[in-house]
Each structure stands twice: as C-alpha cells, then as structure tokens.
Write a structure and sequence with these properties.
It is built from one helix and eleven strands; from the N terminus they run H-E-E-E-E-E-E-E-E-E-E-E. It is mainly β.
C-alpha cells in the first residue's frame, strides 16, 4: 500500500512539472456590452526583468458566435522602458471562408489565439502595450474580451 501511495506522489509531481512555468504576465480586458468601441484602448503594462531570455507573446480574442466577420484587425502600440514607440497591425482570423470557426468553440463563445514565439525584449523594465481596434466601423460588436500574456520560453536555462 505504501508503494502505491508513493507512485501516486511521483505521478502527481511529474504532472505538475509538465504543466510548465506560470506566465510572466497574463491579463484580460473585457469589453462592455461585448462591443469593442474605437475609443476603447485596453492597456497592458508588462515588467520585463531579463533581456537575455526568449519569450512567447500570446494574444487571445474571445467573440460570440454572432460576430459578423471572418477576422478582426487591431493595432498594438508599444512603448519601451526608454520611451521608444511602435505600432504593429495584427489580424486574428475568426472564421474560415466556409463559415466554420477557426478557433476553439464552447457554446456561443469562439476563442482565437495568436502566438509570437522566441521573442526577446531589448530593455529591462516596464513595457506598455495599447490595443486599438482597426475595423472601419465605430464598434466591433460581439467581441467579449482580449488577453495578453508573456511566457518565458520553457527550453531556456
């Protein structure tokens, strides 16, 4: 019986270790009434302690199944600790041309994630990322929330 108990402890430890490191940063912004208005610009402030490490950036967008388009464009405005600024357009595919969902679905929720892998930050300190919706209409309706995560690449020492 004692050997069986020890076996379960080993299995549990292996399972917990395989789950990986917790993200360095992981925050979400929920849109009021499931509508991303043009004037609403979620801000994510990330502290980067190490410029020698590689990171994975993960952006997750959740919409409802009533979202009317096959994609969503937005801009990420970035500001480094030294004050340099940048702007990058991002497209998240939500539906295929045949109308099937690209992302994971659960009931009336569609979750789409884009990854930017093996990235380095050039400076230590606080980075500010501001998200601005980039569609031609005033509101991106049926958009529930957006999340931004920074994860240290697990294969580093």
């Amino acid at each position: 019986m004692k050997g069986l108990k020890n076996s379960w402890i080993v299995v549990l430890l292996v399972f917990l270790y395989s789950c990986g490191e917790a993200p360095l940063y992981n925050k979400s912004y929920s849109f009021r009434n499931n509508s991303w208005e043009q004037h609403v610009k979620p801000v994510f402030k990330v502290h980067i302690p190490d410029t020698s490490s590689f990171y994975t950036i993960q952006i997750t967008l959740r919409t409802t199944t009533d979202y009317a388009y096959n994609n969503l464009w937005f801009f990420i405005h970035s500001k480094t600790p030294m004050g340099q600024v940048g702007r990058e357009p991002i497209e998240i595919k939500i539906a295929n041309p045949d109308g099937s969902w690209v992302g994971e679905t659960s009931g009336t929720i569609v979750e789409n994630t884009v990854y930017f892998r093996h990235r380095k930050f050039p400076q230590k300190g606080d980075y500010i990322f501001t998200f601005e919706q980039g569609i031609t209409e005033q509101s991106a309706k049926n958009v529930m929330d957006i999340s931004y995560a920074v994860i240290k690449d697990p294969n580093q020492k």
